[in-house]
Specification:
35% helix; 171 residues; alpha/beta; single chain; Rossmann fold
Length: 171
């Protein structure tokens, strides 16, 4: 058994909502076994207030959350990454930098709650749904024991988590 803390980078185009929530969730649920970060290819520059509101409502700390460019994690002094997980379809289709540490990559597409228009209540509902999907996937991910799995098996399991069903409207 290893005491290694596994480093995870969640990516989304704007790094303002889904990747921010995934980062905060894994840092909470992973309880020191995982160290999560988030970034975007075209960061919004600010964290969506509905993401922060949802995290606070769920009791998940978002201390230090900020929207940042993924190049921060491709620098020589960046942490070696064990996993890079995209949570939006746009980021999954982009050419990513070469990540330090030869991480396992996966795509966990989640509908963008920040793209929802309408009333604040409709936006809150979209963030609640995205949070629920991310919570389920992050919980499954945190239950894995990366140290006991071979790389190929681990990669397959992490990618399978991204195929966990997303509840349809009204569920």
């Amino acid at each position: 058994m290893t005491d290694k803390t596994f480093t995870v980078l969640f990516l989304c185009t704007g790094n303002s909502a889904r990747s921010i929530m995934a980062e905060a969730l894994l840092n909470q649920i992973g309880q020191g076994r995982f160290r999560a970060f988030s970034a975007g290819s075209h960061p919004a520059g600010t964290v969506n207030p509905f993401a922060l509101e949802r995290l606070a409502k769920e009791g998940i700390p978002a201390t230090g959350a900020r929207s940042k460019h993924w190049n921060e994690f491709a620098q020589a002094d960046a942490p070696d990454l064990d996993f890079v997980i995209t949570v939006c379809d746009n980021a999954a289709g982009e050419v990513c930098p070469a990540w330090p540490g030869q991480p396992i990559t996966a795509h966990w597409g989640v509908p963008d709650p920040a793209a929802v228009t309408g009333s604040d209540d409709e936006k809150r509902l979209a963030f609640a749904k995205a949070f629920a999907v991310l919570h389920r996937r992050v919980t499954l991910f945190a239950s894995l024991n990366p140290a006991s799995l071979e790389r190929l098996a681990l990669e397959q399991k992490v990618r399978e988590i991204g195929r966990v069903d997303i509840p349809q409207h009204g569920e």
